[in-house]
Design goal:
Blueprint (H helix, E strand, L loop, with lengths): L2 H13 L6 H49 L7 H23 L5 H10 L8 H36 L10 H4 L27 H22 L15 H20 L5 H16 L7 H14 L17 E3 L8 E3 L9 E4 L2 E5 L16
Antiparallel strand pairs: 1-2, 3-4
Helix pairs in contact: 1-2, 2-3, 2-5, 3-8, 4-5, 5-9, 7-8
């Protein structure tokens, strides 16, 4: 039976007052009901995906936006960022829970798929669609952040002599992605105690997995219908408590790994940062950027610079020291005056220690 044709024909006939057997009328009613049900399901699914995308974008706007705002000097500690982030998560859940269940996080979607799929009618295909929507929303949120805070980021980079794409630009890239240890608390990039070896990749993975587990545990615990701790009257407070959990976890673990807990919220903004000039600092990280910079420097031509292994004249002597130490060139026929080295007859370096009365570096006869 061609339902579309029959519906049209029966509709036209009804307008003309024609009568049809009851079984045809029942079939038409069933077709119309099924079509309406299919349309309703499609609309609900589209609303759910839109809610997941918009809610994840809100988390990036509020959460990553608070980190972007710190570059202006507006905040003085991690807790100020954490509380803004927690409120942002709560607002995102309040805004989208009715439409999609407010997963807003691929890790939470995976957890519902594995443990409580009946809660939001999750299927593997629906879960994949949720994750795609979450990543799309995170990317859109990061683009908006970049547009809003572009001048703030540029001002911070200018004030601190940061070249975007160089390893030191991790200090601004951290407003988009997560790094370990937290760049703002590292000796190399910030004013904290950490060096890179203090937080291994294994330790960072453990911290992120543990924090994500705690977040999922709280979500599943307080949304369980058998949990009467909040009571029916307090159920509207569930999103606020989830946001509070995020804030607490950030206060505890952000100094170590910046506390991501959300793959979409981390990777989506990283893609935007990589495209916006941070390059390998954003993906995969500053180590790769440092390696490429070192390789470029190693392969650069050295014309016009004397080799550190050469001598000037048969009686010449060289003082070589690593890092900030002096390289002095001495000729038997023209001895430089105390305190200066000569290259091409011009003073170049002041001898280490002389300006402060310290000991002069030892010399080795060449």
């Amino acid at each position: 039976m061609n339902a579309g044709v029959d519906v049209v024909e029966l509709g036209d006939a009804a307008e003309k007052g024609a009568c049809y057997p009851a079984d045809n009328t029942v079939q038409v009613a069933q077709v119309l009901e099924l079509a309406e049900e299919e349309e309703t399901r499609a609309v609900k699914f589209a609303r759910a995906l839109l809610a997941e995308a918009f809610g994840t974008a809100m988390i990036v706007l509020f959460g990553c936006g608070s980190v972007c705002s710190t570059l202006s000097g507006a905040y003085q500690g991690i807790w100020q960022v954490a509380i803004v982030w927690g409120f942002g998560v709560a607002l995102a859940i309040y805004s989208t829970a009715e439409a999609s269940g407010a997963h807003l996080n691929p890790a939470i979607t995976l957890a519902f798929q594995l443990i409580r799929p009946q809660a939001h009618g999750m299927t593997p295909l629906k879960s994949l669609a949720y994750v795609a929507a979450q990543f799309a929303g995170a990317i859109v949120g990061a683009i908006i952040n970049l547009a809003v805070y572009s001048n703030t980021i540029e001002a911070f980079e200018r004030e601190n002599g940061i070249v975007r794409g160089e390893p030191s630009s991790i200090k601004t890239a951290a407003a988009f992605g997560e790094y370990f240890p937290n760049p703002g608390l590292s000796k190399e990039y910030g004013g904290g105690p950490y060096v890179q070896d203090d937080v291994s990749m294994g330790k960072a993975l453990f911290v992120e997995a543990w924090g994500t587990f705690i977040l999922a545990f709280v979500i599943f615990g307080i949304t369980n219908k058998h949990n009467k701790a909040l009571g029916d009257a307090a159920r509207p407070g569930v999103p606020f408590m989830i946001g509070a959990t995020v804030a607490v976890l950030l206060a505890l673990y952000a100094p170590i790994t910046q506390a991501g807990w959300n793959p979409a919220r981390d990777f989506g903004p990283r893609l935007v940062a990589a495209a916006a000039g941070w390059g390998k600092v954003a993906i995969p990280g500053p180590g790769a950027a440092s390696g490429s910079t070192s390789s470029a420097r190693a392969s650069a031509p050295r014309s016009g610079r004397p080799s550190r292994n050469c001598c000037c004249g048969s009686g010449g002597r060289r003082i070589a020291a690593e890092s900030l130490q002096l390289v002095e060139w001495h000729s038997s026929s023209a001895r430089p005056s105390e305190g200066v080295g000569l290259v091409g007859g011009r003073p170049l370096f002041t001898r280490l220690g002389d300006s402060q009365g310290g000991a002069k570096p030892s010399r080795q006869q060449m």
